[in-house]
């Protein structure tokens, strides 16, 4: 526990509100709304948009059910049916579930942790625009009849150019990767926010469980998405430029795609489940009126799930011909996942046991969770058993299982969460009875659809078929499922209506309607854009502090310096560390997303020669982005509380930006590790190796060695520029670093000319990717170096103010390490 | 909900009895039989566990506050109960799986090529290899290996009444061990999505009496 921090003098709450509102509000009008970066606005936009995609995915599901209701369904032709089920899965996974949980995390975390905003408000906005634009591209393809049709898992060779000509697969690869930018951005933002922006004095071990759950989720996103991003890049390179990563004739292997996809795809399930479980762990104690049972055990369970979730991707691949004993390992790991899950389930039951449960609407959805998820988990254990998996894999049984898990483990808890936090979002109570009716329709409709589908699968019905003329025995089961599906759809429509009615006609809610203890309820309803007029500290640990905080008795009250100030704390103890100024309303995120979007659209259109324009636009936007890193003056410490003044973030080494870079490099490192996995996998497993003789000669070796030396020199210079920040020497060091980085890039360009044709063999293609990786990171490092140089020359850095230099230095080191590894790998291939 | 489950359980044998051409629940070979046994055991266990958890949750919901501790819920139920069930199940499943994988014991081999969109089976005959399109002939009561390849995209070989499935992957050669108990016919299908012709990519398995094989097939085993 940290020591007490004295209270600030009380002020008029209304005057303080006006002072804060002026600085923290979004700009008025639709133009203003394009500039919003506030976490409440962005989080709600994520959730609302994901609901729209949920509705679209739901309509697609109803089309599937209409087609399958009879055995000779003539409603859709096969080509369209394939597009529809592919889009149903892709939309629900990438455009509904992930954005929904990101939105919830971004909206809720600052409130429940006692902060005013997320660590990187602009990054959140950028993520939202990437999501919206990418999702729109994917959706447009459906309207144009060019939607992806290879299944949401996009297995090669089916999704390769030979079997899927046209742009449909490119829409999936480019569109989903565009959307993934928002996932990685959200992961970085959520991790840094949880670790560095908790209320003063809130140690890690005392943070609300939602913090632990979202920390686990974000960690999994950080490590889970890069393999998919790499796989998508490789497949797009193969489709666009004929680089043969998956072509068996030239040293590729279709199984590489499956490994990369499921390295992402299985953690994905837990990425979706954990935030929902976090909602349950938050809501159940509130309605049972007792503290959660087994806080430590639940934290351990979350960490266990995060760890285990990366050890069981192969259970999606039990039928690809991997030796049985290897399968047994993954089977055991898959079954073991049930342990942390059941620890949580019993902790929740125990909590309800210890208290007296009030059956309000959110609790109904919690009951829906129990009624659904338990069965989904148990069929999951069944599917983890190798022999049973051999029978049930790719049948309707799995369809039923995954819907029990995802609807039970995500949709019901999310509905519980939405109905729970709606008073805070809308400031209103709900309208009576509609919500209950929606719940019962969804519950009955869901089980009507999916319960018998287990049986359908065991009777032999495979997934992804559109007709079954020879199997009349499946017909009544499918008809029941289709009817159940329509009932469920009606239930969801009613749920949305209930939310709308609450927004429009609900009675004004009083503060803290559920009498919860967490800090998210220590604010007026609906939540103001700044959350807390003064920030909670050790004196104000829970929702009872609502009035003192509004009166400015907490830390860092008001916005006397006319900028958005937040408190940054120590990751472990929550000790106040410094005051960070976060950016306000700006259109930079939407422009950056538009620049990124232009790149993806040009790739999609096959106008590769125009992409340098888009890349220039992205670099320009990135340059603007860094303008926030320097500051023209050394500022005096900012008074936070009587006797406590803290420095501004420009004068600190461990800034949020630094923590964010470290976090991002974890994702980046995972991407690189996935690439190394690809090299190893193809070398050892794929047919048609060894590769033909390489033409790489002495010249290439010299160019590579020279490039490596230049990178090392740039790294050294970056380090010097960081330590000697006073004007003349700092600028000289920065200039040296920039020149060395430029030289390294030029030498890498020379190396690119000497590479063997990447279309010849997978080995040559992989070398092309390794080189591209080095060039890309070199360009980013060069930008950071230029930013440091510029800031040093303009006097925007000083002995105290470090500007972009620490981040530059970190990135340089990463570039040096990966480039050296890549070069070593190529040399090893040539020698060995 | 539980009523629904038991009702479905009762319905299964009835359904399977009337027409089970593709049903994994009316097994016609040792592998399918063992998996069906595993399924029924797991179903019974899962049904009991579901009932137990829901009864506990129901009791917790509808009774007032009562004293309780972390130890009972987390350690006994969460860890102890779950891990014992899983350990037994994993052991049983591993033993079942080990018994049904292909071994190099000289069983009859049939080459199966899965292509867009059909099945081509090749096996030794009296006058050289015999190729059959869409129909797989195998002897009753003898183990046989299906050697799976694909020239185009990934397919998956599945005869639900005989056993589990195995993928046919370009560049790979997967061996799948099966056995049929008695002469008869079974439905086979492609289980991995493979494009426009996926739903219709079916084949038929004809199990013949080894004492009276069809004339065009030698009853001899492949070397």
UniProtKB/TrEMBL annotation, chain A:
GO cellular component, one term: plasma membrane
Ranges for domain Cytochrome oxidase subunit I profile: 18-539
InterPro entries: Cyt_c_oxase-like_su1_dom, Cyt_c_oxase-like_su1_sf, Cyt_C_Oxase_1, Cyt_c_Oxase_su1_BS, Cyt_c_oxidase_su1_bac
Gene name of this polypeptide: ctaD
Keywords: Cell membrane, Copper, Electron transport, Heme, Iron, Membrane, Metal-binding, Oxidoreductase, Respiratory chain, Translocase, Transmembrane, Transmembrane helix, Transport
Pathway note: Energy metabolism; oxidative phosphorylation
Known EC number: 7.1.1.9
Compartments in which it is found: Cell membrane
Keyword Cell division included in the entry's annotation: no
GO biological process: electron transport coupled proton transport; oxidative phosphorylation; respiratory electron transport chain
Membrane topology recorded in Swiss-Prot or TrEMBL: Multi-pass membrane protein
Catalytic activity of the protein: 4 Fe(II)-[cytochrome c] + O2 + 8 H(+)(in) = 4 Fe(III)-[cytochrome c] + 2 H2O + 4 H(+)(out)
Protein name: cytochrome-c oxidase
Pfam short name (any one): COX1
Residue stretches spanning the membrane: 42-64, 84-108, 128-147, 171-192, 212-235, 269-288, 295-314, 326-354, 366-390, 402-425, 437-459, 479-505, 599-623, 696-718, 730-753, 765-786, 807-828
Annotated organism of origin: Paracoccus haematequi
GO MF entries: cytochrome-c oxidase activity; heme binding; metal ion binding; oxidoreductase activity
Family: Belongs to the heme-copper respiratory oxidase family.
From TrEMBL, chain B:
GO molecular function, one term: oxidoreductase activity
Keyword Zinc carried by entry: no
Transmembrane segments: 40-62, 74-95
Any single GO CC term annotated in Swiss-Prot or TrEMBL for this entry: membrane
Chain ranges of the Cytochrome oxidase subunit II copper A binding domain: 105-219
One Pfam family matching this protein: COX2
Record field: catalytic activity: 4 Fe(II)-[cytochrome c] + O2 + 8 H(+)(in) = 4 Fe(III)-[cytochrome c] + 2 H2O + 4 H(+)(out)
EC number: 1.9.3.1
Predominant place of localization: membrane
Location within or outside the cell: Membrane
SUPFAM superfamilies: Cupredoxins
Keyword annotations from UniProtKB, A to Z: Copper, Electron transport, Membrane, Metal-binding, Oxidoreductase, Signal, Transmembrane, Transmembrane helix, Transport
Keyword Signal assigned: yes
Signal peptide positions (record): 1-24
Name used for this protein in its record: Cytochrome c oxidase subunit 2
């Amino acid at each position: 526990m940290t020591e007490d921090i004295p209270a600030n003098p009380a002020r008029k709450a209304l005057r303080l509100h006006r002072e804060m509102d002026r600085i923290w509000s979004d700009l008025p009008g639709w133009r203003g709304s394009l500039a919003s970066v506030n976490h409440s606005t962005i989080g709600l936009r994520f959730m609302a948009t994901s609901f729209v995609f949920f509705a679209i995915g739901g309509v697609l599901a109803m089309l599937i059910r209409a087609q399958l209701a009879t055995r000779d369904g003539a409603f859709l032709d096969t080509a369209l049916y394939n597009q529809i089920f592919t889009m149903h899965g892709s939309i629900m996974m990438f455009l509904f579930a992930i954005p929904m949980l990101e939105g919830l995390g971004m909206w809720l975390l600052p409130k429940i942790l006692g902060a005013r905003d997320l660590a990187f408000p602009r990054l959140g906005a950028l993520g939202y625009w990437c999501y919206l634009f990418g999702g729109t591209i994917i959706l447009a393809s459906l309207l144009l009849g060019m939607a992806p049709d290879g299944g949401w898992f996009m297995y090669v060779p089916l999704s390769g150019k030979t079997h899927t000509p046209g742009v449909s697969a490119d829409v999936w690869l480019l569109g989903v990767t565009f959307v993934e930018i928002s996932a990685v951005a959200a992961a970085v933002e959520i991790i840094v926010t949880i670790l560095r922006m908790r209320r003063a004095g809130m140690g890690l071990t005392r943070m609300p469980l939602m913090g632990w759950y979202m920390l686990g989720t974000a960690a999994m996103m950080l490590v889970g998405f890069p393999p998919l991003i790499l796989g998508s890049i490789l497949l797009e390179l193969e489709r666009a430029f004929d680089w043969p990563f998956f072509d068996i004739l030239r040293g590729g292997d279709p199984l590489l795609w499956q490994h990369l996809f499921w390295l992402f795809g299985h953690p994905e399930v837990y990425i979706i489940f954990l935030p929902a479980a976090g909602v349950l762990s938050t809501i159940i104690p509130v309605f049972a009126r007792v503290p959660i049972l087994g806080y430590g055990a639940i934290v351990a369970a979350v960490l266990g799930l995060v760890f285990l979730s990366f050890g069981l991707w192969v259970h999606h691949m039990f039928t690809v011909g991997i030796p049985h004993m290897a399968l047994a390992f993954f089977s055991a790991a898959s079954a073991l996942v049930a342990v942390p899950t059941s620890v949580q389930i019993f902790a929740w039951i125990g909590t309800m046991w210890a208290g007296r449960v009030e059956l309000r609407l959110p609790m109904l959805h919690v009951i829906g969770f129990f009624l659904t998820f338990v069965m989904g988990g148990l069929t999951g254990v069944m599917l983890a058993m190798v022999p049973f998996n051999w029978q049930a894999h790719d049948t309707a049984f799995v369809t039923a299982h995954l819907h029990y898990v995802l609807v039970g483990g995500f949709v019901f808890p999310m509905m519980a969460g939405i109905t729970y936090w709606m008073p805070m979002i809308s400031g209103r109570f709900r309208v009576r009875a509609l919500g209950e009716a929606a719940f019962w329709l969804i519950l009955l409709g869901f089980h009507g659809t999916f319960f018998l589908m287990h049986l359908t699968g065991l009777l032999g019905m495979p997934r992804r078929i559109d007709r079954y003329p020879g199997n009349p025995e499946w017909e009544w089961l499918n008809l029941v499922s289709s009817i159940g599906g329509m009932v469920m759809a009606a239930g969801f429509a009613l749920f949305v209506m209930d939310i709308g009615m609450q927004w429009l006609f609900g009675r004004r809610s009083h503060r803290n309607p559920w009498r919860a203890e967490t800090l998210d309820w220590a604010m007026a309803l609906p939540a103001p854009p700044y959350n807390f007029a003064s920030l909670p500290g050790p004196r104000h640990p829970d929702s009872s502090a609502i009035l003192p905080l509004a009166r400015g008795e907490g830390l860092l009250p008001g916005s006397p310096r006319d900028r958005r100030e937040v408190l940054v704390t120590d990751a472990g103890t929550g000790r106040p560390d410094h005051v960070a100024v976060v950016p306000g309303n700006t259109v930079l995120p939407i422009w950056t997303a538009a620049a990124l979007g232009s790149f993806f659209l040009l790739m999609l259109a096959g106008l590769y020669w125009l992409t340098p324009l888009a890349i220039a636009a992205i670099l320009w936007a990135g340059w603007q982005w860094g303008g926030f890193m320097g500051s023209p003056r050394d500022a005096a410490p900012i008074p936070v509380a009587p006797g406590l003044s803290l420095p501004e973030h420009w004068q600190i080494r461990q800034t949020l930006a630094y923590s964010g870079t470290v976090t991002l490099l974890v994702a980046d490192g995972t991407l690189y590790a996935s690439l190394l996995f690809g090299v190893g996998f193809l070398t050892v497993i794929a047919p048609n190796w060894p590769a033909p003789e390489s033409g790489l000669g002495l010249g290439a070796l010299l160019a590579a060695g020279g490039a490596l030396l230049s990178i090392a020199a740039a790294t050294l210079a970056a380090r010097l520029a960081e330590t000697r920040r006073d004007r003349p020497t700092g600028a000289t060091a920065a200039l040296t670093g920039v020149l060395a980085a430029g030289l390294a890039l030029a030498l890498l360009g020379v190396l690119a000319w000497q590479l063997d044709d990447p279309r010849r063999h997978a080995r040559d293609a992989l070398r092309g990717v390794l080189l591209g990786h080095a060039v890309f990171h070199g360009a980013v490092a060069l930008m950071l170096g230029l930013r440091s140089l510029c800031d040093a020359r303009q006097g925007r850095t000083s002995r105290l103010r470090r500007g972009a230099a620490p981040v530059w230095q970190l990135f340089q080191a990463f570039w040096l390490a990966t480039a050296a590894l890549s070069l070593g790998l190529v040399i090893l291939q040539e020698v060995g | 909900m539980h009523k629904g489950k038991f009702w479905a359980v009762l319905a299964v044998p009835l359904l399977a009895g009337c027409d089970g051409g593709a049903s994994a629940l009316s097994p016609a070979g040792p592998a399918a039989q063992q998996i069906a046994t595993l399924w029924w055991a797991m179903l019974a266990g899962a049904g009991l566990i579901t009932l137990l958890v829901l009864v506990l949750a129901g009791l917790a919901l509808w009774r007032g506050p009562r004293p309780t501790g972390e130890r009972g819920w987390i350690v006994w139920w969460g860890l102890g109960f779950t891990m014992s069930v899983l350990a037994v199940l994993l052991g049983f499943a591993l033993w079942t799986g080990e018994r049904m994988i292909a071994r190099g014991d000289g069983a009859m081999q049939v080459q199966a090529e899965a292509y867009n969109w059909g099945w081509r089976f090749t096996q030794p005959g009296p006058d050289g290899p015999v190729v059959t399109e869409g129909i797989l002939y195998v002897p009753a009561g003898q183990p046989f290996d299906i050697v799976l390849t694909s020239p185009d995209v990934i397919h998956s070989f599945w005869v639900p009444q005989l056993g589990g499935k195995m993928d046919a992957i370009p560049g790979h050669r997967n061996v799948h061990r099966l056995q049929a108990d008695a002469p008869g016919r079974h439905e086979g299908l492609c289980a991995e999505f493979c494009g426009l012709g996926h739903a219709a990519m079916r084949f038929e398995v004809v199990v013949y009496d080894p004492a009276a094989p069809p004339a065009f097939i030698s009853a001899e085993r492949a070397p």
